[in-house]
Amino acid sequence: MNPYTGRVSCLRASWLSGKTRTKEYRVSQLEALGRFLDEKKNVILDALAADLHKPAFEAELSEIALCSNEVNYAINNLYGWMKDEYVDKNLATQLDSAFIRKDPFGVVLIIGPWNYPLHLVLVPMVGAIAAGNCVIVKPSEISSCTEKLLAELLPTYLDQESPDFGRIINDKHFKRIRALLDSGRIALGGQTDECECYIAPTVLADVKPCEPVMQEEIFGPILPIVTIANVEEAINFINSRERPLALYAFSCNCKVCLCGWGIATSKMGYHGKFSFDTFSHHRACLLRSMGLEKLNYLRYPPYAHRSLGLLLSSLDIKRKGTCTLL
C-alpha cells in the first residue's frame, strides 16, 4: 500500500473544504513562509554551506533573497491575480458576462532538485499557495541538510494540511552523474568523492552529440562543450533535438551572441503571476442574463430558417486589414 495515500487524501479533503481558496488564507500562508525565510536565515545558510559549500553571499542572494522577493511580490499582487478576467464578447453574448476564473488545481506535487534546493522548492510553492492549492513537497535527498531543514522547520510555520515531505536515501544520482564523465575529454575538474556524493565542477571537451552526456538532462556540475563549425550548423543542431535547458555560444565573431533558457518541459521556472497562473485552472465562464433571455429565442428550437442569417451575422468577425509580405 502506498504510504502517502492517507496524507494525499487528507490534503484533498482539506482543499475540498474550501479553506485554501480565500485571499486571507493564502496571504497568511505566504506571510508565514516569509517569516520562515527571515527568522531561519542563518540556519538556511548553514545548511546550504554543508550541502553545496555555497558562500553566504551567493546563498543569501540566489536562494533566500530571491524567495523573499517572490513572497512579497505575490502578496502585493494577489488580489489582482485572483480577480475574474473579463474577455471580449461577440454579438450573440453581448447581454451576458463572459470571463475567465482562476481556479486552483487542488493538491499539487513539487519535486525539488539539489542544485538550488531552497529556491527551486519555495518559488513554485509560492505560486501554488497563491493560487489556492494544497502542496506536497519532495525535496532532493542529495542536498540532505537542506532537505532536513525543510522537513523539520518549514511545517512549524505553514498549515500542516499544506506541506508534506518524502525522503529517499541512496547514491543513485551520484553514480548516474559520475558515469557521464566518461563522455568526451575532461578538460577541467573531474574529481569525485563517493562518500560525500561530491563531483567537482567539470568541463568536458570534444563531446560527440551521440554520447550519454548529450542524451539527458544532466542536473549536475558538468558542462559539455560541442564544437560547431558555423551559425547555420548550430541552428540545425538545435532544431534537430528537443529544446535545451540552456544554451551558450562561444565565438570570436562579435556578431554571434546568443544565450537563453529552455522553453520545453525543463526551463528556468515561473515567477510572479506566471507562477500563479501555472498552478491555476483558467475556467471559461458565461453568466447568462435571464431577464433578457427572450432575446435569445432565435437560438432555440423550433428553428426558423429566417433566423439563421441574423445569427450568422451576429457571430461574424470582419477582418480589419491586410498584411503584405515584401
TrEMBL record:
<dbReference type="InterPro" id="IPR012394">
    <property type="entry name" value="Aldehyde_DH_NAD(P)"/>
</dbReference>
<dbReference type="InterPro" id="IPR016162">
    <property type="entry name" value="Ald_DH_N"/>
</dbReference>
<protein>
    <submittedName>
        <fullName>Aldehyde dehydrogenase 3 family member B2</fullName>
    </submittedName>
</protein>
<dbReference type="GO" id="GO:0005737">
    <property type="term" value="C:cytoplasm"/>
</dbReference>
<dbReference type="InterPro" id="IPR015590">
    <property type="entry name" value="Aldehyde_DH_dom"/>
</dbReference>
<keyword id="KW-0560">Oxidoreductase</keyword>
<feature type="domain" description="Aldehyde dehydrogenase">
    <location>
        <begin position="23"/>
        <end position="154"/>
    </location>
</feature>
<comment type="similarity">
    <text>Belongs to the aldehyde dehydrogenase family.</text>
</comment>
<dbReference type="GO" id="GO:0006081">
    <property type="term" value="P:aldehyde metabolic process"/>
</dbReference>
<dbReference type="GO" id="GO:0004029">
    <property type="term" value="F:aldehyde dehydrogenase (NAD+) activity"/>
</dbReference>
<feature type="domain" description="Aldehyde dehydrogenase">
    <location>
        <begin position="161"/>
        <end position="255"/>
    </location>
</feature>
<dbReference type="InterPro" id="IPR016163">
    <property type="entry name" value="Ald_DH_C"/>
</dbReference>
<dbReference type="GO" id="GO:0004028">
    <property type="term" value="F:3-chloroallyl aldehyde dehydrogenase activity"/>
</dbReference>
<dbReference type="Pfam" id="PF00171">
    <property type="entry name" value="Aldedh"/>
</dbReference>
<dbReference type="InterPro" id="IPR016161">
    <property type="entry name" value="Ald_DH/histidinol_DH"/>
</dbReference>
